Amino acid sequence: MIDPNFGVCGPVNNLTNSQTILFTKGNDQFFSIRTSETGLGPYFVSNSCGGCHSSDNRGHPFTILTRFGQSDSTGNKFLNQGGPQLGTFNLPGYTPEQIPAGATSTRLIAPLTAGVGFLEAVPDTEILNIAKRNQNNPDGVRGHPNYNTIPSFVTPFAGSVPRADGKYICRFGRKGAAYNLLQQTAAAYNHDMGITSTYMPINPYNYLDQTPPPASTPEINNDDFNSVVFYVTCLQTPNQRNAGDATVQKGNQLFIQIGCESCHKQTMTTGDSPIAALSNQTFSPFTDLLVHDMGPALDDGYTEGNAKTSEWRTSPLWGLGLARNVQGGNIYLMHDGRAHSIEEAIQLHGGEAAVSSARFSKLSATDRNAIIKFLNSL
Q1: Terminal alpha carbon distance of the chain
Q2: Domain map of the chain by residue range?
Q3: In the chain, what is the greatest distance between 2 CA atoms, to the nearest angstrom?
Protein backbone atom coordinates (compact mmCIF):
# COMPACT_ATOMS: atom_id res chain seq x y z
CA MET A 1 0.00 0.00 0.00
CA ILE A 2 3.04 2.28 0.30
CA ASP A 3 4.73 3.80 -2.72
CA PRO A 4 8.42 3.92 -1.67
CA ASN A 5 9.18 6.75 -4.07
CA PHE A 6 6.37 9.19 -3.49
CA GLY A 7 4.55 8.74 -0.22
CA VAL A 8 1.77 7.02 1.59
CA CYS A 9 -1.28 6.14 -0.46
CA GLY A 10 -3.04 3.46 1.58
CA PRO A 11 -5.28 3.24 4.63
CA VAL A 12 -4.26 2.40 8.16
CA ASN A 13 -4.40 -1.25 9.09
CA ASN A 14 -7.49 -2.94 10.47
CA LEU A 15 -10.23 -0.83 8.93
CA THR A 16 -13.56 -2.62 8.57
CA ASN A 17 -14.94 -3.44 5.13
CA SER A 18 -17.35 -0.49 5.24
CA GLN A 19 -14.55 1.83 6.38
CA THR A 20 -12.34 0.65 3.53
CA ILE A 21 -15.12 1.42 1.04
CA LEU A 22 -15.52 4.90 2.56
CA PHE A 23 -11.75 5.43 2.41
CA THR A 24 -11.75 4.49 -1.28
CA LYS A 25 -14.56 6.94 -1.98
CA GLY A 26 -12.65 9.66 -0.15
CA ASN A 27 -9.54 8.87 -2.18
CA ASP A 28 -11.50 9.38 -5.39
CA GLN A 29 -12.87 12.71 -4.16
CA PHE A 30 -9.46 13.87 -2.87
CA PHE A 31 -7.88 13.52 -6.30
CA SER A 32 -10.96 14.54 -8.30
CA ILE A 33 -10.36 17.51 -10.63
CA ARG A 34 -12.91 20.27 -10.07
CA THR A 35 -14.17 22.65 -12.74
CA SER A 36 -16.47 25.66 -12.64
CA GLU A 37 -19.34 23.25 -13.41
CA THR A 38 -18.51 21.25 -10.27
CA GLY A 39 -18.06 24.26 -7.99
CA LEU A 40 -14.52 25.47 -8.59
CA GLY A 41 -13.92 29.16 -7.90
CA PRO A 42 -14.49 31.98 -8.44
CA TYR A 43 -11.12 32.21 -6.64
CA PHE A 44 -8.87 29.22 -6.06
CA VAL A 45 -5.32 27.98 -5.59
CA SER A 46 -5.73 24.50 -7.03
CA ASN A 47 -8.48 22.46 -8.66
CA SER A 48 -8.11 19.38 -6.45
CA CYS A 49 -6.94 18.41 -2.99
CA GLY A 50 -4.26 16.26 -4.61
CA GLY A 51 -3.04 19.29 -6.54
CA CYS A 52 -1.52 20.66 -3.33
CA HIS A 53 -0.87 17.32 -1.61
CA SER A 54 0.74 15.22 -4.33
CA SER A 55 0.68 11.51 -3.38
CA ASP A 56 -0.57 12.56 0.08
CA ASN A 57 2.74 14.33 0.56
CA ARG A 58 3.64 18.01 0.89
CA GLY A 59 3.08 20.85 -1.54
CA HIS A 60 5.20 22.74 -4.04
CA PRO A 61 5.78 26.48 -4.57
CA PHE A 62 3.55 26.27 -7.66
CA THR A 63 0.57 25.79 -5.33
CA ILE A 64 1.73 28.02 -2.49
CA LEU A 65 -0.96 29.63 -0.33
CA THR A 66 -0.95 33.32 0.58
CA ARG A 67 -2.68 34.23 3.85
CA PHE A 68 -3.20 37.83 4.88
CA GLY A 69 -4.88 40.12 7.35
CA GLN A 70 -4.02 39.09 10.92
CA SER A 71 -1.03 40.43 12.83
CA ASP A 72 -2.03 39.49 16.40
CA SER A 73 -4.50 37.45 18.44
CA THR A 74 -7.35 39.94 18.06
CA GLY A 75 -8.45 38.44 14.75
CA ASN A 76 -8.37 39.08 11.03
CA LYS A 77 -9.04 42.70 10.10
CA PHE A 78 -9.53 42.07 6.36
CA LEU A 79 -12.33 39.51 6.20
CA ASN A 80 -14.44 42.07 4.30
CA GLN A 81 -11.68 42.44 1.72
CA GLY A 82 -11.19 38.82 0.77
CA GLY A 83 -9.24 37.58 3.80
CA PRO A 84 -7.87 35.35 5.08
CA GLN A 85 -6.54 33.87 1.84
CA LEU A 86 -5.59 35.25 -1.54
CA GLY A 87 -7.15 33.60 -4.57
CA THR A 88 -4.15 32.84 -6.75
CA PHE A 89 -6.37 32.16 -9.77
CA ASN A 90 -9.83 33.31 -10.75
CA LEU A 91 -12.52 32.30 -13.19
CA PRO A 92 -13.15 34.48 -16.26
CA GLY A 93 -15.13 37.59 -15.44
CA TYR A 94 -13.71 38.03 -11.97
CA THR A 95 -11.13 40.65 -11.07
CA PRO A 96 -7.91 39.11 -9.76
CA GLU A 97 -7.57 39.48 -6.01
CA GLN A 98 -4.91 41.69 -4.49
CA ILE A 99 -3.60 41.85 -0.95
CA PRO A 100 -5.22 44.97 0.56
CA ALA A 101 -3.01 47.88 1.59
CA GLY A 102 -1.89 47.56 5.18
CA ALA A 103 -2.42 43.81 5.44
CA THR A 104 0.45 41.61 6.56
CA SER A 105 0.75 38.37 4.61
CA THR A 106 2.60 35.08 4.56
CA ARG A 107 3.24 32.36 1.99
CA LEU A 108 2.65 28.75 3.01
CA ILE A 109 3.42 25.45 1.32
CA ALA A 110 0.84 22.74 1.97
CA PRO A 111 2.01 20.22 4.59
CA LEU A 112 2.08 16.45 4.22
CA THR A 113 -1.33 14.83 4.76
CA ALA A 114 -0.27 11.25 5.50
CA GLY A 115 -0.66 10.28 9.16
CA VAL A 116 -2.65 13.35 10.20
CA GLY A 117 -5.42 11.22 11.73
CA PHE A 118 -2.93 10.05 14.33
CA LEU A 119 -2.09 13.66 15.18
CA GLU A 120 -5.80 14.40 15.59
CA ALA A 121 -6.16 11.47 18.00
CA VAL A 122 -3.43 12.67 20.40
CA PRO A 123 -5.17 13.77 23.63
CA ASP A 124 -4.90 17.38 24.77
CA THR A 125 -3.36 16.10 28.01
CA GLU A 126 -0.30 14.76 26.17
CA ILE A 127 0.23 18.11 24.41
CA LEU A 128 -0.09 19.97 27.72
CA ASN A 129 2.31 17.57 29.45
CA ILE A 130 4.94 18.16 26.76
CA ALA A 131 4.62 21.92 27.27
CA LYS A 132 4.90 21.48 31.03
CA ARG A 133 8.07 19.40 30.74
CA ASN A 134 9.70 22.21 28.74
CA GLN A 135 9.51 24.70 31.62
CA ASN A 136 13.08 24.01 32.72
CA ASN A 137 14.61 23.13 29.36
CA PRO A 138 18.22 24.40 29.57
CA ASP A 139 18.31 25.34 25.86
CA GLY A 140 15.43 27.77 26.23
CA VAL A 141 12.91 25.57 24.44
CA ARG A 142 9.43 26.31 25.75
CA GLY A 143 6.50 26.06 23.34
CA HIS A 144 2.79 26.26 24.02
CA PRO A 145 -0.45 25.07 22.46
CA ASN A 146 -2.18 27.43 20.06
CA TYR A 147 -5.55 28.18 21.62
CA ASN A 148 -8.12 29.37 19.13
CA THR A 149 -11.85 29.82 18.74
CA ILE A 150 -13.43 26.87 16.95
CA PRO A 151 -16.32 27.27 14.48
CA SER A 152 -19.84 26.27 15.44
CA PHE A 153 -19.85 23.28 13.09
CA VAL A 154 -16.96 21.65 14.96
CA THR A 155 -17.72 19.27 17.83
CA PRO A 156 -14.95 19.24 20.48
CA PHE A 157 -13.20 15.95 21.14
CA ALA A 158 -14.22 14.00 24.22
CA GLY A 159 -12.03 15.22 27.07
CA SER A 160 -11.05 18.43 25.28
CA VAL A 161 -11.59 21.29 27.74
CA PRO A 162 -11.62 24.95 26.69
CA ARG A 163 -9.83 27.73 28.54
CA ALA A 164 -11.83 30.26 30.48
CA ASP A 165 -12.09 32.37 27.31
CA GLY A 166 -13.77 29.50 25.44
CA LYS A 167 -10.79 28.74 23.18
CA TYR A 168 -9.56 25.21 22.54
CA ILE A 169 -6.16 23.67 21.88
CA CYS A 170 -5.71 23.53 18.10
CA ARG A 171 -3.10 21.57 16.18
CA PHE A 172 -3.38 21.76 12.37
CA GLY A 173 -1.91 24.25 9.93
CA ARG A 174 1.52 25.86 9.96
CA LYS A 175 0.61 27.91 13.04
CA GLY A 176 -1.47 25.14 14.58
CA ALA A 177 -4.66 27.19 14.39
CA ALA A 178 -7.19 24.61 13.11
CA TYR A 179 -8.88 22.34 15.63
CA ASN A 180 -9.55 19.16 13.69
CA LEU A 181 -9.52 17.63 10.24
CA LEU A 182 -13.15 18.48 9.54
CA GLN A 183 -12.38 22.18 10.04
CA GLN A 184 -9.16 21.88 8.06
CA THR A 185 -10.93 20.14 5.17
CA ALA A 186 -13.84 22.62 5.08
CA ALA A 187 -11.40 25.53 4.96
CA ALA A 188 -9.34 23.84 2.24
CA TYR A 189 -12.37 23.32 0.00
CA ASN A 190 -13.59 26.87 0.64
CA HIS A 191 -10.34 28.85 0.53
CA ASP A 192 -8.17 26.69 -1.73
CA MET A 193 -10.80 25.72 -4.30
CA GLY A 194 -13.69 28.13 -3.73
CA ILE A 195 -16.06 25.22 -3.08
CA THR A 196 -18.89 25.61 -0.59
CA SER A 197 -20.10 22.97 1.85
CA THR A 198 -22.77 22.88 4.51
CA TYR A 199 -19.98 23.75 6.95
CA MET A 200 -18.71 26.79 5.04
CA PRO A 201 -21.61 27.73 2.75
CA ILE A 202 -20.42 31.12 1.44
CA ASN A 203 -17.91 31.42 -1.38
CA PRO A 204 -14.80 33.47 -0.72
CA TYR A 205 -14.62 36.29 -3.25
CA ASN A 206 -13.26 39.73 -3.77
CA TYR A 207 -15.44 41.97 -1.63
CA LEU A 208 -14.00 45.10 -3.19
CA ASP A 209 -15.89 44.91 -6.48
CA GLN A 210 -18.03 41.76 -6.52
CA THR A 211 -20.77 40.55 -4.24
CA PRO A 212 -22.14 37.28 -5.59
CA PRO A 213 -24.85 35.79 -3.38
CA PRO A 214 -24.18 32.74 -1.21
CA ALA A 215 -24.48 29.45 -3.05
CA SER A 216 -28.06 28.19 -2.91
CA THR A 217 -26.88 24.61 -2.40
CA PRO A 218 -23.46 23.34 -1.25
CA GLU A 219 -21.06 22.67 -4.11
CA ILE A 220 -19.91 19.48 -2.42
CA ASN A 221 -22.50 17.32 -0.69
CA ASN A 222 -22.03 15.97 2.82
CA ASP A 223 -21.45 12.37 1.74
CA ASP A 224 -18.59 13.30 -0.57
CA PHE A 225 -17.17 15.84 1.85
CA ASN A 226 -17.21 13.48 4.83
CA SER A 227 -15.58 10.74 2.77
CA VAL A 228 -12.64 13.09 2.20
CA VAL A 229 -12.41 13.82 5.92
CA PHE A 230 -12.41 10.07 6.57
CA TYR A 231 -9.80 9.52 3.88
CA VAL A 232 -7.27 11.99 5.30
CA THR A 233 -8.01 10.78 8.84
CA CYS A 234 -7.18 7.20 7.93
CA LEU A 235 -4.08 7.66 5.80
CA GLN A 236 -1.11 5.59 6.88
CA THR A 237 1.81 7.15 8.69
CA PRO A 238 5.05 7.48 6.67
CA ASN A 239 7.40 4.63 7.52
CA GLN A 240 11.09 5.11 8.19
CA ARG A 241 13.42 3.55 5.65
CA ASN A 242 16.89 2.08 6.32
CA ALA A 243 16.35 2.24 10.08
CA GLY A 244 18.98 -0.45 10.64
CA ASP A 245 21.73 1.44 8.80
CA ALA A 246 24.60 2.26 11.17
CA THR A 247 24.95 5.85 9.93
CA VAL A 248 21.19 6.41 10.23
CA GLN A 249 21.31 5.15 13.81
CA LYS A 250 24.26 7.41 14.61
CA GLY A 251 22.41 10.34 13.08
CA ASN A 252 19.41 9.58 15.29
CA GLN A 253 21.60 9.64 18.39
CA LEU A 254 23.19 12.95 17.36
CA PHE A 255 19.74 14.39 16.59
CA ILE A 256 18.82 13.74 20.21
CA GLN A 257 22.16 14.88 21.63
CA ILE A 258 22.10 18.33 20.04
CA GLY A 259 18.57 18.94 21.28
CA CYS A 260 16.42 18.61 18.15
CA GLU A 261 14.11 16.18 19.91
CA SER A 262 13.11 18.85 22.41
CA CYS A 263 10.58 19.96 19.75
CA HIS A 264 10.61 17.14 17.21
CA LYS A 265 9.38 14.41 19.57
CA GLN A 266 10.07 11.00 18.12
CA THR A 267 7.02 9.29 19.60
CA MET A 268 3.49 10.19 20.62
CA THR A 269 0.51 8.03 21.60
CA THR A 270 -3.10 8.41 20.54
CA GLY A 271 -6.02 8.14 22.94
CA ASP A 272 -9.39 6.60 22.32
CA SER A 273 -10.72 7.33 18.83
CA PRO A 274 -14.10 6.73 17.16
CA ILE A 275 -12.02 4.89 14.56
CA ALA A 276 -10.76 1.80 16.38
CA ALA A 277 -7.71 1.48 14.12
CA LEU A 278 -6.41 4.82 15.44
CA SER A 279 -7.00 4.17 19.15
CA ASN A 280 -4.10 3.87 21.59
CA GLN A 281 -1.39 3.73 18.96
CA THR A 282 2.22 4.78 19.50
CA PHE A 283 3.65 6.44 16.39
CA SER A 284 6.65 8.54 15.31
CA PRO A 285 5.71 11.97 13.91
CA PHE A 286 8.70 14.04 15.13
CA THR A 287 6.54 16.91 16.39
CA ASP A 288 5.20 18.12 19.74
CA LEU A 289 2.15 19.90 18.25
CA LEU A 290 3.22 23.06 20.09
CA VAL A 291 4.05 26.44 18.62
CA HIS A 292 7.53 27.83 19.26
CA ASP A 293 9.17 31.21 18.77
CA MET A 294 11.54 30.68 15.85
CA GLY A 295 13.21 34.08 15.95
CA PRO A 296 13.07 37.27 13.87
CA ALA A 297 14.25 35.68 10.60
CA LEU A 298 11.07 33.56 10.52
CA ASP A 299 8.73 36.29 11.78
CA ASP A 300 6.26 36.73 8.92
CA GLY A 301 4.10 39.40 10.54
CA TYR A 302 1.03 37.17 10.23
CA THR A 303 -0.59 34.81 12.66
CA GLU A 304 -3.68 32.85 13.59
CA GLY A 305 -5.13 32.07 17.01
CA ASN A 306 -2.94 33.01 19.97
CA ALA A 307 0.38 32.29 18.25
CA LYS A 308 2.74 35.23 17.87
CA THR A 309 3.92 36.21 14.41
CA SER A 310 7.31 34.58 15.02
CA GLU A 311 5.78 31.35 16.34
CA TRP A 312 5.27 28.21 14.29
CA ARG A 313 3.90 24.78 15.06
CA THR A 314 6.65 22.16 15.05
CA SER A 315 6.40 20.55 11.63
CA PRO A 316 6.30 16.73 11.69
CA LEU A 317 9.45 15.35 10.08
CA TRP A 318 8.00 12.02 8.97
CA GLY A 319 8.06 11.73 5.19
CA LEU A 320 10.85 14.31 4.94
CA GLY A 321 13.05 12.03 2.85
CA LEU A 322 10.23 11.64 0.30
CA ALA A 323 9.80 15.37 -0.28
CA ARG A 324 12.20 15.67 -3.20
CA ASN A 325 10.25 13.07 -5.19
CA VAL A 326 7.04 15.10 -5.07
CA GLN A 327 8.69 18.50 -5.46
CA GLY A 328 10.05 18.02 -8.94
CA GLY A 329 13.46 16.68 -7.95
CA ASN A 330 14.29 19.76 -5.88
CA ILE A 331 13.39 20.35 -2.25
CA TYR A 332 11.46 23.23 -0.70
CA LEU A 333 11.42 23.22 3.10
CA MET A 334 10.25 25.51 5.90
CA HIS A 335 6.79 27.04 5.87
CA ASP A 336 7.36 28.92 2.61
CA GLY A 337 9.83 26.65 0.82
CA ARG A 338 12.76 29.03 1.26
CA ALA A 339 15.19 26.24 2.28
CA HIS A 340 16.53 24.11 -0.57
CA SER A 341 18.28 21.51 1.56
CA ILE A 342 17.78 19.94 4.97
CA GLU A 343 20.98 21.55 6.21
CA GLU A 344 19.77 25.00 5.15
CA ALA A 345 16.46 24.39 6.93
CA ILE A 346 18.27 23.51 10.15
CA GLN A 347 20.42 26.63 9.94
CA LEU A 348 17.32 28.81 9.52
CA HIS A 349 16.06 27.69 12.92
CA GLY A 350 16.36 30.57 15.38
CA GLY A 351 14.66 31.64 18.58
CA GLU A 352 13.98 28.63 20.79
CA ALA A 353 15.82 26.39 18.30
CA ALA A 354 18.94 28.57 18.04
CA VAL A 355 21.00 26.49 20.49
CA SER A 356 20.33 23.22 18.67
CA SER A 357 20.96 24.83 15.30
CA ALA A 358 24.31 26.20 16.52
CA ARG A 359 25.30 22.78 17.85
CA PHE A 360 24.54 21.26 14.46
CA SER A 361 26.76 23.81 12.71
CA LYS A 362 29.66 23.00 15.06
CA LEU A 363 29.57 19.27 14.34
CA SER A 364 32.08 17.67 12.03
CA ALA A 365 31.03 17.20 8.42
CA THR A 366 30.76 13.45 9.08
CA ASP A 367 28.38 13.97 11.99
CA ARG A 368 26.30 16.54 10.12
CA ASN A 369 25.97 14.12 7.22
CA ALA A 370 24.86 11.38 9.62
CA ILE A 371 22.02 13.59 10.87
CA ILE A 372 21.04 14.44 7.29
CA LYS A 373 21.03 10.75 6.38
CA PHE A 374 18.85 10.02 9.41
CA LEU A 375 16.39 12.76 8.45
CA ASN A 376 16.29 11.50 4.87
CA SER A 377 15.33 8.07 6.22
CA LEU A 378 12.13 9.44 7.75
Answers
A1: 17
A2: 16-106+147-233, 120-145+236-376
A3: 63
